């Protein structure tokens, strides 16, 4: 079953279209990873889905219902949560307070709030372990885990992540990747953008390659990873036939 569907989506920032007719589908319980050079429009795809940017043409639907052009809070209520790029936590507030902010939309339902808190603590142990510490005192990797945990308070159907690995050391990276896979096992559909192509396609079920505001390739993560051009462009030519290596993009 398709959770999210984009058809012919055109969007930009005023000075012409950045997305030039994007088609993209996320099936239920899949992890889709978008890769591509800088400026390809990857983050713009996430912004247009979460309602931060209005499409000028095309259709976006969630569970078959049109959501294109809806306000961000409405998109959120429909079960799409975006984990913003780094520095999204309130550094002077405790980890617990930051997590509570994620439950703002359900704050009036004390029982649901309590249930969600328990679920989040259960899935992301650092939320309980560091509950009273200021978010500003966490390491980069710990912050990223709390950022993801915070958006779980709304129990999203679809979670959008823009470069979750950015700035993380290898150990934190492994922790964040494991958390994403664990969320997916628990039933959440994931759409992420990753510069770390090896990591992103490694944890994804599906891969999408963007270039110049269009989707160039869309297939299973394995096929995208093994595609000769992708291998030579992004993965150091490991699986490409000899003599076909090119300089990395971007
Ligand atoms: N707020 C903005 N205002 C104007 N132009 C923007 C804005 N954000 C992005 N752009 C432009 O839109 C194009 C696509 O940007 P986008 O951020 O979607 O690319 P990206 O694929 O995420 O790149 P990166 O890998 O560098 O994050 C770029 O040419 C960029 O300069
Ligand atoms: Mg980006």
Structure write-up:
Strand 7, helix 7 (about 170-185) and strand 8 (about 190-195) form a beta-alpha-beta unit. A six-stranded mixed beta sheet has the order 6-7-8-3-9-10, with helices on both faces. A four-stranded antiparallel beta sheet has the order 2-1-4-5, covered by helices on one side. Helices cover about 35% and strands about 25% of the residues. The chain folds into two domains: about 30-55 and about 70-80 and about 155-250, P-loop containing nucleotide triphosphate hydrolases (Rossmann fold, 3-Layer(aba) Sandwich), CATH 3.40.50.300; about 85-155, no CATH class. With about 250 residues, the chain is α/β, with parallel strands linked by helices. It is globular and about 45 Å long. It contains ten helices and ten strands.
Question: Could you outline the blueprint of secondary structure elements for this entry?
Answer:
Layout: E1 2-12, E2 17-27, E3 31-35, H1 42-50, E4 57-62, E5 65-66, H2 72-77, E6 80-83, H3 95-102, H4 110-123, H5 126-129, H6 140-152, E7 158-162, H7 170-185, E8 189-193, H8 197-203, E9 206-211, E10 214-220, H9 221-226, H10 228-234
Parallel strand pairs: 3-8, 3-9, 6-7, 7-8
Antiparallel strand pairs: 1-2, 1-4, 4-5, 9-10
Bound molecules: adenosine-5'-triphosphate and magnesium ion.
